[in-house]
Design a protein that fits this description.
Helices cover 0% and strands 45% of the residues. It has 339 residues and is mostly beta strands.
């Protein structure tokens, strides 16, 4: 992974944050004796976990730490609340495959862009402030981030429901680097037929039978890697339809570092739903496989590998067995606590 040592004072990462960013790299390896984050957990092997915060440091642990998740190709944006008493910050990273904490670099203020990130892998980050007296403060909480892929499928595909008598409006999120999109439609079976190419991220689809629901999937087209896998489906219908299905669950979240080899899922109750179907994937872009069918709005995935990201999504099912849209997927991870 290459991390450039440049301070970008005029370039704004507008898609994520209004403000200037820094791309960083250490000019020399960070001091291992005062390096990696420490907690009441069994951390991965690597840099020694000895000294953390200086006992006389007035600094608090950095708050509001976030890592971007699938926003930019090959990059992860790290952001946090700036401490006026901190002269600089040291950033450490754990890659799920290396399983070792490594010093990423130092930066004077947030945010920072970590470049040359490999797609399809998760990265964990923690940082600490250093005061003007050179004393290091405590480590922040650990956050997980990942880079976008050039040919990842579109997210948040949504088909309108009962808003027009003859057409269904289909929308989705743009994919970084995509040159266009392909739209597929199913009228009730598991087979999706190619419908058309499209350049934007919204299109109105006329349907022949306005009284039945239709399912849609979208793929992205990359100049280098061709067509992506298909997105999650979305069910839509016209105002004339009499076969609505449950809405996608809202309020869905997967826990980050809360469980000992466990990831906790929760979501809001969906009206008319009698059960919920949970899918899981080791990657943010899929493929997702069925994991469980439950009647409650919580689920605990047990026995997962610590310090490894997993992605989840949930769909509601009504008494007739009609399945609605999946919610937006969310990534979670677990730690391994000491006995």
């Amino acid at each position: 992974m290459r991390i450039q040592c440049t301070v970008l004072l005029a370039i704004c990462f507008c898609a994520v944050l209004a403000g200037c960013t820094k791309q960083i790299t250490p000019s020399k390896p960070l001091d291992a004796a005062s390096s990696a984050p420490q907690a009441e957990i069994q951390e991965p092997p690597g840099i020694p976990f000895g000294q953390t915060a200086h006992p006389d440091s007035p600094l608090a642990a950095p708050a509001g730490v976030t890592a971007s998740q699938g926003i930019a190709v090959g990059e992860i944006l790290i952001n946090w609340d700036e401490d006026p008493d901190a002269e600089k910050y040291v950033i450490y990273m754990l890659n799920e495959k290396s399983n070792t904490w490594q010093g990423v670099g130092q930066v004077n203020r947030p945010p920072a862009i970590i470049s040359d990130i490999r797609t399809g892998e998760e990265y964990f980050y923690a940082l600490a402030g250093v005061g003007r007296d050179g004393r290091q403060g405590p480590w922040s909480t650990v956050v997980m981030g990942w880079a976008a892929s050039e040919n990842q499928p579109p997210a948040n595909v949504r088909a309108s429901r009962g808003t027009n008598q003859e057409t269904i409006l289909l929308t989705w999120d743009s994919v970084p680097g995509a040159m266009g999109y392909k739209i597929y439609m199913s009228s009730g079976s598991d087979r999706y037929d190619y419908l058309r190419d499209w350049q934007g991220t919204s299109v109105r689809i006329p349907v022949t039978d306005q009284k039945k629901p239709y399912r849609f999937k979208v793929s992205s087209i990359s100049a280098n890697k061709g067509e992506s896998v298909l997105s999650d489906f979305s069910v839509g219908w016209t105002a004339a339809s009499s076969e609505p299905c449950p809405d996608a669950p809202t309020g869905f979240s997967a826990s980050d570092g809360a469980g000992n080899g466990e990831i906790f899922l929760k979501w809001d109750k969906v009206e008319k739903a009698t059960r919920y179907e949970i899918h899981r994937s080791p990657s943010s872009v899929g493929p997702f496989e069925p994991l469980a069918m439950v009647t409650t709005t919580t689920y605990t995935d047990r026995g997962v590998t610590p310090w490894t990201g997993f992605w989840y999504k949930v769909a509601a099912v009504d008494p007739a067995g009609m399945e609605g849209d999946f919610c937006n997927h969310d990534g979670g991870w677990s730690r391994q606590y000491k006995n």
